Structures are given as C-alpha cells and as structure tokens.
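Running this now, will post back.
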Amino acid sequence: MLRTQEADPIMDPKLFSPLYLGDLTLPNRMVMAPLTRNRALPDGDVPHQLNATYYAQRASAGLIISEGTQISPEGKGYIQTPGIYSDAQVTGWKTVTAAVHEAGGRIFAQLWHVGRISHVSLLPDGQAPVAPSPITANSQVFTASGFADVSDPRALETGEIARVVGDYRKAAENAKAAGFDGVEIHAANGYLLDQFLRDGTNKRDDAYGGTAENRTRLLAEVFEAVTDVFPAKRVGVRFSPFSSFNDIADSDPVATFSVAMARANDAGLGYVHLVEGETGGPRDFPPNAIQTLRANFSGAYMANNAYDRQMAIEAVEKGDADLVAFGTLFIANPDLVERFRQDAPLNKPDPDTFYGGDAAGYTDYPKLEEATV
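Update: finished.
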C-alpha cells in the first residue's frame, strides 16, 4: 500500500506558501514592513529612481508595504519622507510601483499622518502640529537641522476632522493612480490615528473622545473612506497596542484595541498588522492579549516584532500568524525570502545608514550569490 506523504513543515514550511487577499495572491507570507528611510527628494518629498531600485530589489517578498507616506503637508514629521498628495509625488511613486511589478512583486502604500509628532519647521507656514488634544509629546523628530524636540500641538476642531478623512481618501485615490496594489492605514507608533485611539493622548469631549467607541470613530471613518477607493481586502491597518513609542499610552490597551480590531472587521479589511510589544523593542505584552485581540478580527493576521526565521516558521505553522513582517532584516537582505528558504547566512544591517543618505546602506547590500562570490 502506498502512503500519501504529508508536507513536512521543516522541509516545506507554510511560511513560503501563498496567501490570498481577495483577488490578490501573495506567493509567500513574508512581508517587507514599512521602513522610514528619509531618501525622498528634498524638494517636494518626491520618490525617485533610487527608491525604485531599492523596492524592486526586495520584490520577492510576498508583499512590500511602503515606508510611511504622508497624506498631506500637515501630516509630515521628518525630513525627506515621501508624500502621496502632489502630482509630482504620484509620478514618482509610479516609477517605484512599475519597478516592483516588473520584478514580479506586489506593493501597498502606507498612508501616514504623524499628528503631534512633528515640528513647526516641517509644516506649511510654520504652523503647529495637529492632535486630538493639545498635549505635547516627549519625543523628537528629524529636521533639516538635526534632531529636535517636537513642537507643541493644537487640537483639531471637530469641524476639521472631515477634512482629515478627505485627505486619507485623496491619498488612497493617488495611491491607486500611482499603481499601488493596495494600502495600509498607519494607526500605530504614536501617530495621529493612534493618538485618537489612546486615552492618554485623547482628552476630547466631543464625538471623537471619551469611550473607546468614540475614540475609534475617526479610524472607522478613515476605513470607510479608503475602502470606497480600494476593495476592502486590498486595505490593511497597522496597530501597536502595547508600544509606548512616541510617548503614547492607554489605560487599557486590550479593551481599546479590541474595539479597534472590531472596527477593522466591520470594514472587511484584508489584514491587521500588529506590532507585538514595544516598537523595535521587547516583545512585552499581557498573557493571551494577542489571542484576545485576534478574536475580534476574521481577516488575515500579520505579526511583527523581532521575528527570526524559526519564529516565523513556527508562528505560521501553528496558526499564530498568517503573515509575518520583517523590518531591518529586509533592509540588509534584499533576497530575504530566498535566504530563509535556504536557511542561508544573513547580511548584517548598518544602523548608521538607516535614515537619510544615498545608495550606501540602501541599495548596495549584496544578494546571496553576490555575497558568496
């Protein structure tokens, strides 16, 4: 009698199997995480050929999520981060998406508004950053003069919130025009949407403050606007419930983000992307917290934070994640998928070249065959 041989998770890990986001097929479950690199053109924050080369080199990822891309001039928090609100920026992003697609990849734009994490020197006419409440963060941003403390923010008026939602809608429209396959809404790491979600930064007494239902209202309105542009399965959202990055805090993150996850589920989003613990730091969160949050969302779950090859393989095999996002490993290893398949040695990332600069530490990391030679 012949026996049917089942797939061996060691020899044939599910991490390298396809996953479907609606009608979009991801050939593997390794995602290039959004990574701020500060290499847009200084005049107009426009993506250019160097960026196209960088992303195309990493097109073997199941999905690339672009670096945070500000939805408006008001949404900018660091020098030379790309935007998605001007015609020149859309044209620049077309160069990037065309290069990724030609290399066989898929790429989503991460839609970003920094809120209070900004500086008057970065904003139109030196205006104050905006936030849910006028609470200054104990944080710094990168300006033309180097690192600087963030500026004091002002609270958005209730009547202004529709404009912000409109900026997200227009950014999604521009992302579609630029050739992106979908978008990820950045609601993590202490930026604007995260500021609205958390009770430590949201002290409003209108319909956007108070209860968790109210604090997630702006998020839900952004979901509605963006899914009017892209099919819901082509839209994801990033949360960081247990991170204090950018001086963010909440008295009960499991309760708050259970509501936020339910909002994502109601909107029919394709995936939720979760930073598991501190952003770029320890994997520290309450027992069973991830499972509690996941119970509120039926779409794909993307895990992120300090995963290595073995952790990622085990997480997907066990059903603890559908997708795993990698940050610095993709910076240093453009062919990370193939290196993981072979369990091959990895290039070491150079933190000195993470933010700003030229091709050095950006497009010059060798592929496996080059490193071997």
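The radius of gyration is 20 Å. More later if anyone needs it.
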